[in-house]
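User: Okay, second chain of the day. Same drill as before: sequence in, structure tokens out.
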Amino acid sequence: MPDYPRLDRRIPRPGDLRPFLALRGGKGLDRVQRRLSAAHTIEDLRRIAKVRTPSGPFHYVDGGAEEEISMDRAREAFRELEFRPGILCDVHAVDMTTTVLGGPSALPFGFGPTGGTRMMHAAGERAVLRAASRAGIPYALSSVGTTSIADLAAAEPGARRWFQTYLLKDRELSLRMIAEAKAHGYDALIVTVDVPVSGNRLRDLRTGMSYPPQLTLKTFLDASYRVEWWMNLLTTEPYTFTFEEPGRPRSELQVSGFNDNTTTFEDLARVRAAWDGPLVIKGIQTPSDARRAVDAGADGIVLSNHGGRQLDRTAPPLHLLPCVVRDVGADTEVMIDSGVRTGADVVAAIASGARFVLLGRAYLYGLMAGGEAGVDRAAHILRTEVERTMQLLGVTSIAELGPEHVRLFSRRAPLPFD
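Assistant: Same drill. Structure tokens below.
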């Protein structure tokens, strides 16, 4: 047996452990920043959000319809994509800017419309818009949001704002909201078309998350020890929904009587006539409907299954993307949402043909985890993930991304590269 040399030993000095004892978070950070500094992914923000937010609002964001198959499959679709990186490329400078709907975006993604945002955190839509403005990306206000069209515009006048609406039973209300958005400088209109009726969202039914919320005793008790959430809610202005009008009782416009299940493609003509800016149709789930939306005057479409919150068992939007881009990409800007959780997902979607990506849950987890600072953290995480993924792929601009950088992974048999 070899005569192995012994380790040279000495008595430890007091300073020897110092390099290994650096405290997480950094000097000078407040408690919210320290909490957020421990989050390195959107999933980390989700875990923090779950602890800090009552179950009703959290599951409203986190859940889907029925068995949540659509939601899970949309996420799985991104996991099934493989990247095909190039090597030995100069990637010291990466340009993540792009243009969408006639305007600039510093990143290939924006913050999409979400309902009831102040229920997640009292800072609500204003915080999301300010964070989006700092990131240089657009933000879409939902017509079932919790901030008025005018108040959001006043919160960050220089930000790029989009407005999302439905074709309501009260068509005149829809047109009044569209006119107000136009008057306050919103530069694109999104019409969501996949909600003839609300999906069967079982988590919401079990926690009382309706419009307005009807909390059960169990849900109330669950919320009772989230002291900060309650204090934020009770010490800030009561929220109203974006669609509400002064002097009109909220009971007239409950969601149960809000959506119009008689709407057809012909109804889009009235919207097109009322809005002279970029018009986007959100909720497209088949190639044929994509073409009909373009024929009806859409400048853009969003392939979306509503984050899995409407019809269960639908196809993942990512799977529809290549054929829809092939069919209508020359005539319209094809965007995508649903299932996007990482910057790598954003890059995969762009490489698969999307012009732009909209996120919802990703920034809401940040909002629940830490208010406006949490949305900033979400944007930072996604930005660094996009940049790193592009560098590792060997590309330096969004325009360079293409189908040669992704392929579908098969567990059954190897797929040829070329």
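The domain at 42-249+268-408 is CATH 3.20.20.70 (TIM Barrel).

User: Thanks, on to the next one.
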